[in-house]
Design brief:
The complex is a heterodimer of chains A (320) and B (448). With 320 residues, chain A is α/β, with parallel strands linked by helices. In chain A, 39% of the residues lie in helices and 14% in strands. Chain A is built from twelve helices and nine strands. By secondary structure, chain B is of the alpha/beta class. Chain B has helices at 94-103, 122-135, 158-164, 179-190, 215-220, 227-244, 256-267, 278-282, 304-315, 331-334, 351-360, 367-382; strands at 22-32, 37-46, 49-54, 63-66, 71-74, 76-81, 106-111, 139-144, 168-170, 195-198, 211-212, 224-225, 248-250, 272-276, 321-322, 397-407, 426-436, 439-443. The chains are: A alpha/beta (320), B alpha/beta (448). The interface between A and B is medium-sized, with 28 and 17 residues.
Chain lengths: 320, 448
């Protein structure tokens, strides 16, 4: 590298977890997303940043909004986005994830966006291929772009993240979103409180530096941000609570609870919302809610992720 | 009777000295807890048996082996290995697995019945013994399944398997979940005085787990197997075994709670024994943080406190035996994602160095205690020859260079599989020679 040229902040060709990112990298990515957000307001919503590049969306799990968000992000950067959807587990099929990926890579792919039911799948993949790997959710482990868009949305609203009190409420145990949010928020200096019954929020989370409480009511007045997680009924094989009715009674966000919060509280939800369960309809649609803005911001954040990872990989190619 | 390989197949230049009928192992540090010996002595072997042990060597021998600086011990016996034959010969065979065993200093192994088909009847036991007689480099003691197909429902033909040569019984890989079936198996087995070996894991707790339940699993979002699942079954079994008088053995103890249960049962005079693996003496669940499937085993790697409890259990004799749970898997199986990958790692060729690392270098135990746990106790529990260098005993001898430094390299291993988390690590101490019934089965050469 030539003397006098600053080392770029972003040098990663993969985005696998929030854990690996420094505070500076996260802020740089959010700033980059800020500039991409403007693209979406133009009448021609496209920039040529990734023209001629191929992004493959490898989704081994159902997803509508994350897949669409990545697909649009790739298209707005002028990349070719192709879909690969597979719901049979690789072991059952006899072909491993790595074999599938190596085959796809052999066709000439620049970025793989992976959604997979197994924790660690993205890291596993990144060790085996040469192209960029972006984790779009691996099992219950990580969902870094969701955490980044949450950070982006909080910063947009509050002007800062440092020093904020943020609660994440619900099924933390089965949530990759929560795991990534905890790390991202902590890296930017927020205080994280996890709320839910002990079956869904175990004390083990304290080892991640988060506060754990089972009493939602008591923490309402101190929170700047409250993120309500979806109750994943489909994943609750051995149910973490006796009934939806009982869950709503203790952990649902409704107008009465909202009244006990600070007036400027921000209510978030990664979607899709179970209306009337974790979030009452009038709160979801009310002025405190940032649900749709999260979705909008997700697009800008994913554009930034694809752009920066590809740029880092290309930089690597041209380096002496 | 257990099979002892008579000779290697065909001419084998590496074993040029195998047919010599007398060997003199001179000047080594003989460690034999069965006779309470720990001294520099000469050991004479004649016609497959220990002929003399003393300070003055007999003058004539077909071969004189200078064992200066070496540990000379009764042959190490690993009572918990998976040889994968029949059914998974691409991962390991009786031939390759026992070659690995001999290279690791073991003169005998007991092989678990979770093969395909499982060893749950007398003809399957006979098959293993016949294959061993034909191809094995060490003694092979087959362990029969306790229940048909290892399903934990109906008793397997325990008596016929005893008659065929099964040395102990276990459904390893699974514990018998149903208490009634377990009690029946214990009662029935008690009439044959064979060891009842249980893989303690209550599947109603963390049945779908893939690593230890705890902060690391929580952080990684991986389903956990709580230590309590092991403790619960051990506790139930100890209560059941008390009524039946069966000799009960806990396989691969992994957590503090189980160590304490075994300690209490021993104190109460019950015939309960236990073994521990090198990895449970050295590694914690934090090793899983990179999703490296070489750290995926069952029972899973536990917490630091559990590791310390296992080490303390070896120190005070609560844990009787060291066993490596050698579990070969092909590279393709370990290519799966962590949740999908099979459990287990290979261990025969690294065990001695890892026992030294875990127990001798930190001065937890001394050489006589190590030899007791790796040789004398397994021989006693299985009721097999060996575990002693007393005159007249079969000449099963392990020679160890306790100070040799070497680098673990999976590519040089005799095992057919490569799933070893210690690959590339620098370790101290290794087997340099293995003698089974007076014949060299392994001698360390330059290429090792």
């Amino acid at each position: 590298m030539t003397a006098g040229i600053e080392r770029p902040v972003w040098t990663r060709k993969h985005l696998l977890t929030i854990n690996e990112l420094s505070r500076e990298e996260i802020l740089f990515l959010l700033d980059t997303a800020e500039s991409f957000k403007e693209v979406s307001t133009r009448s021609v919503k496209k920039v040529p940043a990734l023209r001629g590049r191929v992004v493959v969306l490898m989704f081994f799990e159902d997803s509508t909004r994350t897949r669409m968000s990545f697909e649009l992000a790739a298209q707005r950067l002028s990349a070719d986005a192709i879909d690969f959807a597979e719901k049979v587990s690789s072991t059952k099929k006899g072909e491993t994830l790595l074999d599938t990926a190596r085959n796809i890579e052999a066709m000439g792919v620049d970025i793989m966006v992976l959604r997979h039911p197994a924790a660690g799948a993205a890291e596993h993949l990144a060790r085996a291929v040469n192209c960029c790997v972006v984790n779009a959710g691996d099992g219950q482990h990580a969902h870094p772009t969701q955490a980044l868009l949450d950070l982006f949305t909080i910063r947009e609203h509050k002007g800062r993240i440092e020093g904020l009190n943020v609660a994440i409420v619900g099924d933390i145990l089965h949530s990759r979103v929560a795991r990534s949010d905890i790390r991202g928020l902590q890296k930017l200096g927020a205080r994280v409180t996890l709320v839910g019954p002990p079956t869904l929020v175990s004390r083990d989370f304290e080892a991640m530096g988060a506060r754990v409480t089972h009493d939602f009511e008591s923490i309402l007045p101190e929170m700047d941000v409250i993120s309500m997680l979806r109750i994943q009924k489909e994943r609750m094989t051995a149910s973490g609570f006796p009934s939806v009715r009982e869950y709503v009674h203790f952990y649902g966000m409704n107008r009465e609870r909202l009244r006990r919060c600070r007036p400027d509280v921000l209510i978030m939800h990664p979607g899709p919302v179970n209306r009337g369960i974790e979030l009452a309809a009038d709160v979801a649609d009310g002025p405190s809610s940032s649900i749709l803005r999260q979705v909008t911001n997700g697009l800008a954040v994913r554009m930034a992720v694809l752009f920066l990872c590809q740029q880092a990989a290309a930089g690597g190619e041209h380096a002496p | 009777m257990p099979a002892v390989p008579r000779r290697p197949r065909g001419p084998d230049p590496e074993f040029g000295s195998t047919m010599k009928s007398t060997i003199l192992i001179r000047g080594g540090r003989v460690v034999d807890p069965s006779q309470e010996i720990d001294a520099v002595l000469d050991l004479a072997i004649k016609d497959g048996r220990i002929a003399a042990l003393g300070k003055s060597a007999p003058r004539s021998a077909d071969e004189v082996y200078d064992a200066g600086g070496l540990i000379v011990a009764p042959g190490f016996i690993d009572m918990h290995v998976h040889l994968r034959e029949p059914g998974h010969e691409a991962q390991e065979t009786i031939e390759s697995g026992t070659a690995a065993a001999a290279a690791g200093g073991f003169t005998a192994v007991a092989c678990m019945p979770n093969t395909a088909p499982p060893l749950d009847n007398d003809s399957a036991i006979e098959f293993v013994l016949r294959q061993a007689a034909r191809t094995a480099h060490t003694r092979v003691y087959p362990i029969g399944a306790l229940t048909e197909k290892r399903e934990g429902k109906e008793l397997a033909e325990l008596g016929l398997m005893v008659r065929a040569g099964a040395i102990a019984f276990s459904d390893d890989g699974d514990g018998i979940q149903d208490a009634g079936v377990c009690l029946r198996a214990m009662k029935y087995l008690s009439m044959f005085d064979r060891l009842f070996i249980q893989h303690c894991q209550d599947r109603t707790l963390g049945g779908g787990g893939c690593m230890n339940a705890g902060p690391t699993a929580t952080r990684l979002g991986l389903p956990g197997i709580p230590a309590a699942s092991e403790v619960l079954m051990a506790q139930r079994d100890i209560a059941l075994a008390r009524q039946t008088g069966v000799r009960y053995h806990v396989a691969h103890v992994s957590c503090a709670g189980t160590v304490e249960l075994v300690r209490q049962a021993k104190r109460a005079g019950q015939r309960v024994t236990a073994e521990v693996t090198p990895h449970h003496l050295l590694l914690t669940d934090e090793a899983c943080a990179t999703f490296d499937t070489n750290y995926k085993m069952n029972p899973p790697l536990r917490s630091r406190a559990d590791v310390e409890a296992c080490v303390a259990g070896v120190q005070d004799g609560t844990i009787d035996c060291l066993a490596c749970d050698h579990a070969p898997h092909g590279k393709e199986a370990k290519e799966y994602e962590f949740q999908e990958a099979p459990f287990g790692i290979i261990g025969l060729e690294t065990a001695v160095a890892l026992y030294i690392r875990a127990l001798l270098l930190p001065k937890v135990i001394d050489w006589p205690q190590l030899v007791r746990a790796a040789s004398t106790r397994p021989a006693q529990l299985l009721g097999v020859p060996g575990g002693s260098l007393a005159v007249g005993q079969p000449a099963d001898v392990t020679l160890i260079d306790p100070t040799a430094e070497w680098t673990i390299d999976v590519e040089r291993m005799r095992s057919k599989s490569r799933n070893c988390p210690f690959d590339g690590e620098r370790v101290q101490g290794r087997a340099v020679g293995t003698i089974v019934e007076g014949q060299w089965r392994f001698r360390l050469t330059e290429r090792d």
